[in-house]
Design brief:
By secondary structure, this protein is mainly beta. The strands form two sheets. Strands 2, 4, 5, 6, 9, 10 and 11 form a seven-stranded mixed beta sheet that branches. A four-stranded antiparallel beta sheet has the order 1-3-8-7, with no helix packed on it.
Length: 126
């Protein structure tokens, strides 16, 4: 059974930092772009960051300068480091794996991602 399991969510004060992890099991995603999406209260799920097998990353405008995505291919994991967090970053964060492999650039649309984790809640207090 293919699983993506996020961890690292929780409560953080505004201005603080958080590091999310996502571990894959059941198959390897070494050759798939991996991504983080989030769903804020009352909003649709949105793209945050993605990274290719080779480490080329894409970030949303709101994530640039504050979020960093990285991956460990040997461990089949992807990470999201968030700094200078604000209450607008409060959301359920999901990791996802692209349905395609060996992409030169990571994609940003939800429909491109076939595998999803269950999400981890991040709450930023003001």
């Amino acid at each position: 059974q293919v699983q993506l399991v996020e961890s690292g969510g929780g409560l953080v004060q505004a201005g603080g930092s958080l590091r999310l992890s996502c571990a894959a099991s059941g198959r390897t995603f070494v050759n798939n772009p991996l991504a983080w999406f989030r769903q804020r209260p009352g909003k649709e799920r949105e793209f945050v960051a993605a990274i290719t097998r080779g480490g080329r990353s894409q970030l949303s405008d709101s994530a640039k300068g504050r979020f960093t995505i990285s991956r460990d291919n040997a461990k089949n994991m992807v990470f999201l480091q968030g700094d200078s967090l604000n209450p607008e970053d409060t959301a359920v964060y999901y990791c996802a794996a692209d349905s395609e492999t060996w992409r030169l650039y990571a994609r940003t649309e939800l429909s491109n991602y076939a595998y999803w984790g269950q999400g981890t809640q991040v709450t930023v207090s003001s």
